[in-house]
Design brief:
The chain is α/β, with parallel strands linked by helices. It folds into three domains: about 55-400, Alpha-Beta Barrel (TIM Barrel); about 405-495, Immunoglobulin-like; about 505-615, Trefoil (Acidic Fibroblast Growth Factor, subunit A), CATH 2.80.10.50. The protein has ten helices and 34 strands. Strand 26 (about 535-540) and strand 27 (about 545) form a beta hairpin. It is globular, with a radius of gyration of 25 Å.
């Protein structure tokens, strides 16, 4: 950016399931709390034994600021590269390089990125000095995913002859594809291999004000561009994935991706689906991202966000370098990984100059787009000082520890005001915890699967700490206990013991109805919670929910139970931290049809919408 009808069903209660693990309730698991707990022992949050998505990368964009930084002292440039790409800095695993469109008619000089295309059709590879400098740094530091992304095609191919507000002319789609493939080949010869190309960015925006480069791309042209680029890459034997469509709002992503990707010959060229979250999506809309991705068989990435504040995650003008905005950022990362189950998080610009009236304090004149800031008047006053925000450190609480290949596990039952995410990789757990509370908060975290053996590290960012090494939590018998500092983000690294397959067991009650989930071969419904055996469910490392009548299964005729565990997605479920129970095959939520509350009301699969009839917890 830049700037259902209810239907009753009688379901039988059966004999009590054997306990798979000692008295673990599915809900620590979800959102509810057991009705009776010792006053001094907080309810345990549960790390799901079932793995969700695998994390591909965490990164930032190199748009625009590189056009200023090319004028900085090489020593400052090298420092910025270390701050972004080295293990001592953010240790980013993705970097988005802006393939410029030439900047024709763009009114903000720094946002007028040079292209490589000469007037005679030749190439001048000496252009875009700043962009090339930091792209090479990213490659030298071994950043895993190098992504070339386009705001606008070169102006000669747009309908208005500008790098802003004009569409790519249909007759030039092949020329544009050739250009992107040529750029890819050139950088590969320089030792910089693009792993992915994104051929258009926020295609739903008009960019008509020309404050920056940008190219609207109608839905019915997106597949044409993807196919043209994919075919050109295939002809050259390039192995660069295509990501699309970078919609600025999740609502447009979910409405429009199924339209263009379904066009014949398009889907095979699409490696990843990309979306932005400038609509400040709630859990329902984030759930729709997951459903859309599942419906077309692709993994989703959250590839851009910035510019929120004033106490919320919605678009707002503000500059806030404090822990307040850092915690909002960390909440967005958490939600993208835990609710839309994205496999990547990529922040917008790494650096910016819009700090407003004072780089050290919150003000309404600046913008929360950068992680690090520099003086907008550097050219006149020679000031090349770097100003850090807490957002820089907040992103590092993830990027330095949640490495590519880490497997996310949902965490349910966290205390109020606390968000917990857990990742399993190479025999270790990484747990990132946001404490939004203004007081210290006790955390009791239980691992139902592979258990932690010992705490290796605890690193915290708070109002007065930046990646500070702090006291490690206590670890005993698969339980981790600690007290979280007020208004803080803490990352725990835990050595892991074994690969256990313990399960969570207990009843599941709907928040709206207060009644428990029951199911058999005839369907699924709710019934008054009685503690009967037929209301007990076991959730294991395979992601199955097993009741007295078998495994909860999503089929063409609705929800039923099956005596056999097939391993298919229609029997795998994600227990989201917000109480959603999501089917992995469809991406849809368990839903009490028609928001009914009577005994026997039917439970179905329905698009996640954040409604209380889709929230499940322990009674």
């Amino acid at each position: 950016m830049h700037v259902s009808q209810p239907r009753t069903a009688h379901l039988r209660a059966r004999a009590l399931l054997p306990a798979v693990s000692a008295a673990l309730a599915v809900t620590g698991a979800l959102l509810g709390s057991p009705s009776a707990r010792a006053a001094d022992a907080p309810a345990a949050a549960e790390v799901s034994p079932h793995a969700a998505q695998t994390i591909d990368d965490i990164g930032v964009s190199g748009a625009w600021w590189v056009n200023d930084l090319q004028h900085f002292d090489p020593a400052v440039q090298a420092r910025v590269a270390r701050l972004l790409f080295s293990a001592d800095g953010l240790d980013l695993s993705a970097y988005r390089y802006n393939i410029g469109g030439g900047g024709t008619a763009v009114t903000t000089p720094a946002r007028a990125a040079e292209d490589f295309l000469g007037t005679d059709g030749s190439y001048d590879w000496n252009r875009d000095e700043g962009g090339r400098t930091f792209l090479k740094y990213a490659a030298q530091y071994g950043v895993k995913d190098l992504i070339g992304f386009v705001n606008s095609a070169p102006a000669r191919w747009t309908t208005n002859g500008r790098s802003c507000g004009g569409r790519l002319k249909a007759e030039n789609e092949a020329d544009f594809a050739t250009y992107l493939a040529d750029v890819t080949d050139h950088f590969a010869r320089q030792g910089v291999k693009f792993d992915y190309i994104s051929p258009f960015n926020e295609p739903d925006n008009s960019f008509a004000d020309c404050g920056q480069e940008g190219m609207p791309v109608p839905v019915d042209q997106r597949d044409d561009i993807v196919r043209a680029l994919g075919a050109e890459q295939r002809a050259r034997h390039q192995h660069t994935g295509i990501i699309a469509d970078e919609s600025s709002r999740t609502t447009q992503f979910t409405a429009e991706v199924p339209q263009w990707i379904a066009q014949p010959g398009t889907a095979p060229y699409v490696s990843k689906l990309a979306h932005h979250t400038y609509d400040d999506p709630d859990d329902g809309r984030l759930g729709n991202v997951y459903e859309t991705s599942k419906s077309v068989g692709r993994t989703s990435w959250a590839t851009e966000i910035c510019c929120f504040g004033k106490g919320g995650t919605g678009w707002n003008q503000e500059y806030d370098p404090t822990i307040d905005n850092a915690l909002l950022m960390s909440r967005i990362v958490y939600k993208d990984f835990a609710t839309s189950h994205d496999s990547a998080f990529q922040w917008w610009v790494a650096l910016a100059d819009g700090y407003g009236s004072d780089p050290a304090t919150k003000n309404d004149e600046g913008w929360n787009d950068g992680l690090i800031y520099y003086d907008p008047d550097y050219a006149a006053n020679g000031d090349q000082k770097l100003y850090f925000t807490k957002r820089y450190y907040a992103l590092g609480q993830y990027s330095k520890f949640v490495r590519p290949g880490a497997v996310a596990h949902n965490v349910t039952g966290a205390p109020a005001g606390v968000e917990v995410s857990a990742y399993d990789r190479d025999g270790r757990w990484v747990v990132v915890v946001n404490n939004h509370n203004t007081t210290g908060t006790a955390l009791n975290l239980h691992f139902a699967g592979a258990t932690p053996l010992r705490a290796a590290r605890a690193v915290r960012t708070s109002a007065d700490e930046n990646w500070a090494e702090v006291a490690k939590p206590s670890v005993s018998g698969g339980a981790v206990t600690t007290t979280l500092a007020p208004r803080s983000i803490t990352t725990y690294v835990l050595d892991q013991k074994g690969h256990g397959s313990a399960a969570l067991t207990g009843a599941l009650a709907g928040r709206q109805s207060g009644k428990c989930l029951i199911a058999d071969a005839s369907g699924a419904a709710i019934a008054s919670c009685t503690g009967a055996a037929g209301q007990s469910w076991s959730y294991d490392a395979r992601g199955t929910l097993k009741g007295a009548d078998g495994y909860l299964t999503a089929g063409s005729s609705g929800l039923t139970t099956s005596a056999t565990a097939t391993g298919d997605g229609n029997q795998r479920w994600l227990l989201n931290s917000d109480g959603q129970i999501v089917n992995e095959a469809s991406g849809r939520c368990l839903d009490v049809s028609g928001q009914a509350t009577a005994d026997g009301s039917k439970v179905i699969l329905y698009s996640c919408n954040g409604g209380s009839n889709q929230v499940w917890s322990r009674q």
